Amino acid sequence: METTLVVIGIILLLIVVPLFFFFRRKSTDIRLEGDLLVLRYPFAKEEISLSDELKSWQLQQANFLWWGRVYSVNIELRSGKWKQVNSRFNPGGFEAVFDYLKTNYADKRKANNK
Question: Which residue ranges run through the membrane (predicted)?
Answer without folding.
Answer: 6-23
